[in-house]
Amino acid sequence: MENYRKSAHSTYDIKYHLVWIIKYRKPVITGQIAFRTRELIRIVCQRNEVEILAGHVGSDHIHLVVSVPPYLSASKLV
To answer: What pLDDT digit, counting tens, does each position of 59-78 carry?
Structure first.
């Protein structure tokens, strides 16, 4: 029960595995772009009360495992 998140009227454990892949898998997420991408992902997650459980920013893809509140759909988060 300690892994569940709680709000005023619900107890939940909703997790999404999100993957973004660059077209043709070109290695463009490097250096300052990777740093800024990581920073923006953290800001968006913090504003939407999303907890980042795992994440990786590669040169051609981004993996995220996040825990989200029940009122936030995957399409709105992305």
So the answer is: 999 999 999 998 899 899 88
